[in-house]
């Protein structure tokens, strides 16, 4: 192995993970928007010179796979020979390496040693508003990307260390929240720069050749983990089709051999509205499912994903073509992630739990703050119930598989910052997810609006077709949003854009209970009594479903 | 007439209870030092304290000042040995404790296990009543359901009640009313409300804090009562102080009310000791490192000040979200890497060290107690860094055959020799510790090269010089008595309380009066509390910190404020914030700055020890030389090292590496090129080439 010492490799590889954590911490702490610093809708990583992801920090698992694809696209557009030290690139356009939607801004910085690119530091964060048809920029009614905000097609934000003020000005003028945008942009710049500084220190200590060799070794380590993981899975060709809330049917075929894992998505509906995903986005869903079933603990680097192949057809929901819109790409990606897991659940029941609420449940609320008059925008995903697995009940109230080390907003902070009243933040006691091990509970949140002229936009799936049960366990319950206006019947939503809200209207957000595992009649009577005592089930339910007398 | 002042510190650890006693002649200032160790005696920990006093030959009736640190609170939490708690909270929020923040740190893992709440749902009850975030009453508190709730709690065997209402940090009136009523209806029950512990926002964190405090309260109260009674029975009539997580000590009465503040008392005293040592020897900027048997902990001291924060969690790591405790705790990073940490090779031929530890039983393979796993200690022995003929101060015969077999197993899996395996273990262990030290320095915007490394605990001195070289640190200090340094730190502690209060204010003209009033009000509260402990206002020193951020941000940067807050000084305060912010994050913004809360430190000296330096003895270092041996310095190669007897080192002695200093509790590894000097207090200063 090129004469370098394996312990030194290990030290460099550990350092890479520490650097991405530091990049993440710096960006998080300095961001202006709650969706970044509280919800942690961001990701950071280090790529090798060719753009393969080498290491990634905390945050959103679904963001980890974005950065390599962005850097590769930047390198397509800007050949390495044209890139100079001090350049810093920005892209948010899914047709230019942005992968997700226009709200997510990716910054990428080439790290130079002796005039050559040796690595990239990169991050991605959700910006609250990048212009477009609606506040928050994500519209369920958009049909073309032009309606979704300002497009930044892999351009230089800094050229040889000099800021391209024109890009800054264009970004600022296109946002409804320019001050937030500026703060969030600088937070991202601080993040990639700190990463660059640390990599240069490593190179200073160990030399560029050793650093590069350590990266290559790390990729091979990832690949070895993945191959070992694939070898543990049963070979076969597994097909599954699932009806969606809107009646469309999504199909997947997963073929597992001794050393490959192929996800075939070619047979799927044509692209439509803003619920589409880029091909790269679909790849990320497949990567997440692959990681979860092959080896959740392995380094999630480019090497790990080598055994994975994803097949798509252009013009479909999983491979949108320009100028298709994709504001709600995330609901398509998470449906796909869930679909692949469901496809495999019956074949590897010890690895894949019963279905969970499996939606970002993206919720955008905005308007004037009743006390300060300043405009506020909430952009938040919701917590929900997870599925049961063999041996234990599902987790209550955690983020979906797309949001990992993410935090909900405390009611006390929300009331001060947004001027809403939070009437309730509770676990839902909806009946569902019964089983020998039961599904975890979702949540019920009530926001009471204190001023006129507020608005609500939501994008929820799993609102009709509930999370699935396994091995005789019951299905869970669906997600939904209600608007409760004084003296009027409840309005129920799954997707909605700019729903007007006025004083004393209540937004009621409910997320699903996860699916159950096994026959409820086999549930430990002590556990049934505990659920009864805790008020999760009624005596009638305990008797009828669990046979408790 | 007393001619001596006797100060004692006792530190109850997992395995041993340590004692340090300073008998100071009031006329000359000279001290006689006694140290002793005895077994920790769970569950009656106070017995171990009485035993160690006895063993050290210290008569409690002669002791003037006794400081005490204990792991009783953290043990009760991690071993789940607290009491059954009932929680009373605001209507609509009984599930807040279970919902927590919803995060999944182990995010690829579909089998992630969310931490179970300490209070099950049926014991989480609600009362109507609501405060706003500005502390205004939106809906009056209705206590009519309380008697029935308490009756249920009694019937269910609840022994402690926690109360946490929304926005109690801004206005605690409802919490006070509920707590008064609980005490009236059920005087025997342990009861605590969130605002008594913290005045910061975030309802889940505050609920968790109140619940965990209630959970350990009866246990801790019992412990403290038995300790006081046991000491009194032996004639102790001096002042008893309890070590706190904020690096201060506090009175037994005060700690009994909110015992959760003891949660990190052990590490806190060591870090405080490092800060005090730094002051003593003129090193205000210190990286403090404490290496024990199973973990290494580190903290950063800047300008003589420890950093105290309130975002502390137990059981939080890459696999679990853990539980928050919002009390003032010294800012520390802890990793599972100590002398007993086990080296292992994964399925992909990668070498790791820790976090599993061989513990005291069976311990490292070289203990010869049946341990077959190679530990960092085994590697240190194999490489000659630890003296195999003077293992554990000569109390253990090193089983080198067992150590070799354990190291060989690691080497075989890696395809390398025993020696290469041992070197690899040392390098990986050092790397883990370097990363921890970077987390408290680089990740907080500090350059480690501006700091002096102070290393203590059983293993600190063995690794410190290598870590310093890696970090570019120019100087290492190994304190005299490094293995009982935490107990020394306790003796140097002040009576100290940290007050954190959330309060939003824009930093603009007209705002100063309100901010000044908040500090003044909090200072008065502190003085009132100190007065009940018999401490006069004139003895209390304050440090005022403000927590600031750019408008709309969340995370705050702390800035030390000197003097009263006036409108004229707001500009200077804002500038200080911009500078602190830029240092940590590389840029500043032209955005409005807001205050998010205050952090007030109130401290008073209570019989603190005065150290006196001895003059250089004039003897050469060769007087302490006890031999030479071959030592493997890993990256610095195999060297013929001079071996010094630590007990014979005297002020003014100087020598150069490669060398090893040994005494019964500590081994100091001095690398080639290092220069060593002993100061007037017996501390070992190691200068690196850097």
UniProtKB/TrEMBL annotation, chain A:
Every Hydantoinase B/oxoprolinase domain range: 5-520
InterPro entries from the UniProt entry: Hydantoinase_B (IPR003692), Oxoprolinase-like (IPR045079)
GO CC annotation terms, alphabetical: cytosol
Taxon lineage: Bacteria, Pseudomonadati, Pseudomonadota, Alphaproteobacteria, Hyphomicrobiales
Protein name: Methylhydantoinase
Molecular function via GO: 5-oxoprolinase (ATP-hydrolyzing) activity
Pfam family name, one: Hydantoinase_B
GO BP term, pick one: glutathione metabolic process
From TrEMBL, chain B:
Domain Hydantoinase A/oxoprolinase: 206-498
Xref: InterPro entries: ACX-like_C, Hydant_A_N, Hydantoinase_A, Oxoprolinase-like
One Pfam family linked to the record: Hydant_A_C
Gene Ontology MF, one: 5-oxoprolinase (ATP-hydrolyzing) activity
GO cellular component: cytosol
Domain Acetophenone carboxylase-like C-terminal: start-end pairs: 507-687
Gene Ontology process terms (BP): glutathione metabolic process
Domain Hydantoinase/oxoprolinase N-terminal: 7-184
Protein name: 5-oxoprolinase
Species of the source: Pleomorphomonas carboxyditropha
